[in-house]
User: Fold RHG15 protein from Neopipo cinnamomea.
Amino acid sequence: PEEKLNLDDSQWEDIHVVTGALKMFFRELPEPLFPYCFFEQFVEAIKIQDNATRIKSIRSLVKKLPRPNYDTMKILFEHLKKIAAKESVNLMSTQSLGIVFGPTLLRPEKETGNMAVHMLYQNQIVELMLSEYSKIFGS
Assistant:
């Protein structure tokens, strides 16, 4: 049965509850927003030393995503960019958002021994996509 939420309930005034719900939604998807088959490609792209080439590579991967993933990602990252823009108030930098959302949006299908390394790349990918949003999602 579908759960009906009362958004007038005072619990939704707590931003941590809303953020937790958003993260849980993305974590509970059958497949992450960045599909499993793209994980290694995104990791390889973030490792590119030249910044312009790295951005181009990420942009090209993002454009290859299934349409629903792309559309959701574009809206989500646009929203997260607005949060990062208010860092002085909410203390959420692009780096913090990368740490919070990286492992939720992007993970390997099979967890291997190099989880710490993966986590670093997951964070960096989200961070780059926020800081270079217009270059990655722009027309």
